[in-house]
């Protein structure tokens, strides 16, 4: 069976990482507009780097949870395309063989001038030079608001080929990911949502399973394995 899975902040939250959207409009005590846009980086690169340095440290200290490990088992048993909105490496540290990071990764750096990418150090600063063009324009390799997510052609293709699409721990508020269930469903896939509560696009799913990902995902994977 061909399965496409999208994971969001809810799966990482159970490993202790803060979710992207909070009810008070703040993200780890910062306005999103101040730390997650190209304009914010141009205005105050030191603040943006400090924010992502802290996130990088917290992600490095976190550990994969049972939901991450269950998806590794799913990949062993089925033709799995795993897409994540998360920028941590918890899927990889659970030994997931192939992960599509549509919003980039904390472990990567990007030159805002020439587009060169390299492995990010634990701590980045506004004084860091690009190893290729030497410009002092090193930024986190993260997709910010107003930027195009990565690997979209591969993602659309996987959604169109899938027999089953599952969204795990996603809000249903951020596009294009919020449109994945509709796209997969139009192509003939069964669509299932695993979440603490209904997402903003819950109507796009054929089935919904509510509960913590560390419980629901292993149970769901076990049910697919017979």
From TrEMBL:
<feature type="binding site">
    <location>
        <position position="111"/>
    </location>
    <ligand>
        <name>Zn(2+)</name>
    </ligand>
</feature>
<feature type="domain" description="Deacetylase sirtuin-type">
    <location>
        <begin position="1"/>
        <end position="226"/>
    </location>
</feature>
<feature type="binding site">
    <location>
        <position position="114"/>
    </location>
    <ligand>
        <name>Zn(2+)</name>
    </ligand>
</feature>
<feature type="binding site">
    <location>
        <begin position="8"/>
        <end position="27"/>
    </location>
    <ligand>
        <name>NAD(+)</name>
    </ligand>
</feature>
<feature type="binding site">
    <location>
        <begin position="85"/>
        <end position="88"/>
    </location>
    <ligand>
        <name>NAD(+)</name>
    </ligand>
</feature>
<comment type="function">
    <text>NAD-dependent lysine deacetylase and desuccinylase that specifically removes acetyl and succinyl groups on target proteins. Modulates the activities of several proteins which are inactive in their acylated form.</text>
</comment>
<dbReference type="Pfam" id="PF02146">
    <property type="entry name" value="SIR2"/>
</dbReference>
<dbReference type="InterPro" id="IPR029035">
    <property type="entry name" value="DHS-like_NAD/FAD-binding_dom"/>
</dbReference>
<feature type="binding site">
    <location>
        <position position="52"/>
    </location>
    <ligand>
        <name>substrate</name>
    </ligand>
</feature>
<keyword id="KW-0520">NAD</keyword>
<dbReference type="InterPro" id="IPR026591">
    <property type="entry name" value="Sirtuin_cat_small_dom_sf"/>
</dbReference>
<dbReference type="InterPro" id="IPR050134">
    <property type="entry name" value="NAD-dep_sirtuin_deacylases"/>
</dbReference>
<feature type="active site" description="Proton acceptor">
    <location>
        <position position="103"/>
    </location>
</feature>
<feature type="binding site">
    <location>
        <position position="130"/>
    </location>
    <ligand>
        <name>Zn(2+)</name>
    </ligand>
</feature>
<dbReference type="InterPro" id="IPR003000">
    <property type="entry name" value="Sirtuin"/>
</dbReference>
<feature type="binding site">
    <location>
        <begin position="195"/>
        <end position="197"/>
    </location>
    <ligand>
        <name>NAD(+)</name>
    </ligand>
</feature>
<protein>
    <recommendedName>
        <fullName>NAD-dependent protein deacylase</fullName>
        <ecNumber>2.3.1.286</ecNumber>
    </recommendedName>
</protein>
<feature type="binding site">
    <location>
        <position position="55"/>
    </location>
    <ligand>
        <name>substrate</name>
    </ligand>
</feature>
<feature type="binding site">
    <location>
        <position position="213"/>
    </location>
    <ligand>
        <name>NAD(+)</name>
    </ligand>
</feature>
<keyword id="KW-0479">Metal-binding</keyword>
<keyword id="KW-0862">Zinc</keyword>
<keyword id="KW-0808">Transferase</keyword>
<keyword id="KW-0963">Cytoplasm</keyword>
<dbReference type="InterPro" id="IPR026590">
    <property type="entry name" value="Ssirtuin_cat_dom"/>
</dbReference>
<dbReference type="InterPro" id="IPR027546">
    <property type="entry name" value="Sirtuin_class_III"/>
</dbReference>
<feature type="binding site">
    <location>
        <begin position="169"/>
        <end position="171"/>
    </location>
    <ligand>
        <name>NAD(+)</name>
    </ligand>
</feature>
<comment type="similarity">
    <text>Belongs to the sirtuin family. Class III subfamily.</text>
</comment>
<feature type="binding site">
    <location>
        <position position="133"/>
    </location>
    <ligand>
        <name>Zn(2+)</name>
    </ligand>
</feature>
């Amino acid at each position: 069976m061909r399965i496409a899975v999208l994971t969001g902040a809810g799966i990482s939250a159970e490993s202790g990482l803060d979710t992207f959207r909070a009810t008070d409009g703040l993200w780890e005590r910062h306005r999103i507009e101040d730390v997650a846009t190209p304009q914010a980086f141009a205005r105050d690169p030191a603040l943006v780097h400090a924010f992502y340095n802290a996130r990088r440290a917290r992600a490095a200290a976190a550990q994969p949870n049972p939901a991450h490990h269950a998806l590794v088992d799913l990949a062993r048993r089925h033709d799995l395309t795993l897409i994540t909105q998360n920028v941590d490496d918890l899927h990889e540290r659970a030994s997931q063989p192939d992960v599509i990071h549509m919003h980039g990764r904390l472990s990567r750096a990007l030159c805002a001038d020439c587009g060169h990418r390299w492995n990010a150090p634990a701590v980045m600063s506004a004084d860091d030079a690009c190893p290729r063009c030497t410009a002092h324009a090193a930024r986190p390799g993260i997709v910010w608001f107003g930027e195009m997510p990565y690997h979209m052609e591969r993602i659309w293709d996987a959604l169109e080929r899938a027999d089953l699409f599952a969204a795990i721990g996603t809000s249903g508020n951020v596009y294009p990911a919020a449109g994945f269930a509709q796209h997969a469903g139009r192509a003939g896939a069964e669509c299932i949502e695993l979440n603490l509560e209904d997402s903003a696009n819950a109507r796009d799913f054929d089935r919904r399973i509510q509960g913590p990902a560390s419980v629901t995902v292993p149970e769901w994977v076990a049910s697919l394995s017979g």
